[in-house]
Amino acid sequence: MSFSHEDVQRLLQLLDSSHFDELHLEAEGIKLSLRRGGATAGPAPVAPSSARVASAPAPIPQPVTSSAPAASPVAAAPPASGDTSLLEVRAPMLGTYYGAPKPGAAPFVTVGGHVNADSAVGIIEVMKLMNSISAGVDGVVVEVLVRDGDLVEFEQVLMRVRPA
Amino acid sequence: MKTADQLAADGPIRRVLVANRGEIAVRIIRTLKRLGIESVLAVSAADRNSMGARLADRAVCIGPARATDSYLRIGTLIEAARGVGAQAIHPGYGFLSEREEFAAACEENGLIFIGPTSAQIERVGNKLEARRCAEQAEVPIAPGGQVDNLPAALEMAEQIGYPVLIKAVGGGGGRGLKRANTPAELSALFDLASSEALAAFGDGRVYVECFVTQGRHVEVQILGDGESVIHLGDRDCSVQRRYQKLVEEAPAPNLTDSMRRDLHAAAVRFSKHIAYRSLGTIEFLVDVARQRFYFLEMNARIQVEHPVTEQISGLDLVAEQMVVAQGHPLRLKQTDVRLTGHAIECRINAEDPTHDFRPAPGRLTAAHFPAWPDLRVDTHMEDGAMIPPYYDSMIAKVIATGSDREHARRLLESALADVRIEGVLTNIALHRAVLATPEFIQGGFDTGFLGRFLAGSGAAVFGQPATQPETLPATQTASEGQR
Q: Tens digit of pLDDT for each residue in B411-438?
């Protein structure tokens, strides 16, 4: 049995629309824990590297904590390598994020790829208006923190880039 | 009969996007929590660490601090609501709450707008159309009407008698509003009023209305389900400064029984005429001298001063609003509504009383409100809270309830003496002074009250420049233009 990104998205939505706070699933070759972000719960206790999907912010409610001033849920997560020299690419607006120019097309960026300030790194849709997002920085993409179709918040960190 | 909470929790709405901030966001979230309905608060970057953001099940940042880039962005809010899986949006007051386009965008995107229909908002938002509705519903309106040019304005003014007010058709908040005492003044002001209206509201049309020199601002709270309408009593909001309400109370003191009955009946007639859905307020100007009243406007949303009605009715108006939003018919009949006692509310603003009450934003070092029985405080303030400079300066509403008006007034006086807000300036001293004036103690004064107080006995304390009298008693105006 193989698990696709869509399957996990569907599970997220299922949990999201339910009254349950947690969902644990074990099947052949996969072990998945989903937890609704509550006032007491921190970020999902999964290592960022192994949780590309589970750490996606939407649609599970996650509070903005008062201790992290400029933090959206994702920005609150520690940088992948704890490397403070990395540059962040942040969402200039709230909307639905798309990582490719159209469904099925190659993504704008991949980990390891090079971007410069003007490189398009994604699209944010607001009410059917597609807004092209540029990197604003030069360097190599180290980490992409959002997935196609995610709701991204204003100033949410979309990806991290090692300066060129 | 099922309770409001049972019905309010029963329906398609499981998660609500709250499209507002400050104390009203906190107020709405508290009721949603009690109902077991999830709340998602849309916050600007300046409000990420607000009390509301912490209380909500989730906060989503919708944009930068400036309201035009965040709280006033319809598309972004719709996108946020859909993105978080909310079924409904609560607009609160101010911001987009009375923007027909916002309600329409919700309707088009399958979201429940917790308020009236977009068509109703449009209808009551246009002052001429609202006046027409009032006429059709046989609700008295101040003599006057729309005028296209100066000769027509002069003719109208001649008919109704001076002084007159020139008001903007699309107006509110006192802008585009002029008082003319003579034909010469009207001639001088007409074009100015029209161009101000065009600049402020994108609609240069104006109308001329009889100016009532001694008027009280009395309003009636109504609740409708799109068919039936009931009223939840009246409020008096005659303590106003520059068209902004400062102190509100329920019920309105010193009204004759027949006047009160007529006001209630007129409000219900108006709302029934437009088959109003959700909470709304019909504002009236009560002509003290002639013992008559006129329709002013309808506020198609929850009101800042709704707590005074809640205190004397025992109802949670947000829950009642949710009952209707969930698709239920009104659960209350008029005879189920019981009003007892008296409640008074003071709006505490962060402003500098010695500098003409200019807004005084900043960080609170301490915020303490007494926790007494019969005292209610609606606030988003706490130690260390930030009052950003981008929004309204109101930081708290302190509401006292008593078996009668004097009990409530005394309780409020004592409570305000015990409020400690440090780090920013507030208007608490003004409230305390107002509550202690013989005129307030007696009750039933007109909207010129605060202007008279500030020019008279209050002048020494609050340093009102004597050269700058209020151009108008804050009456007959859309005092709630912004909220």
A: 999 999 999 999 999 999 999 999 999 9
Question: Per-10-residue mean pLDDT for chain A, 164 residues long?
Answer: 67 69 69 59 34 36 37 42 84 96 93 96 92 96 95 96 93
Number of C-alpha atoms within 13 angstroms, CB side, residue B10? 9
Q: Distance from A121 to chain B by nearest Cα, in Å?
A: 20
3-state secondary structure of A65: coil
Q: Which residues of B are catalytic?
A: 301
Pair of tokens at residue B34:
């009690």
Please tell me the distance from the alpha carbon of residue B207 to that of residue B111, in angstroms, as a whole number.
36
Nearest to B38 by CA among A100, A39, A2, A24: A39
Contact criterion met (CB < 8 Å) for B48 and A61: no
DSSP string of B105-120, one letter each residue: HHHHTT-EESSS-HHH
Identify the structural domains of chain B with CATH numbers, from first to last: 4-114 (3.40.50.20), 143-210 (3.30.1490.20), 215-462 (3.30.470.20)
Residues of A in contact with B85 (CB under 8 A): 13, 16-17, 59
Closest CA to B83 of B61, B104, B101: B61
Please, what CATH class does the domain formed by A74-164 belong to?
Answer: mainly beta
Question: What ipTM does this complex have?
Answer: 0.77
Torsion angle in degrees (nearest 10) through CA of A132, A137, A139, A141 = -50
B295 token code pair? 């329709």
Per-residue CA distances from B25 to B54, B55, B359, B380 (Å): 11, 10, 21, 8
Every domain range in chain A assigned CATH 2.40.50.100 = 74-164
DSSP B125: H
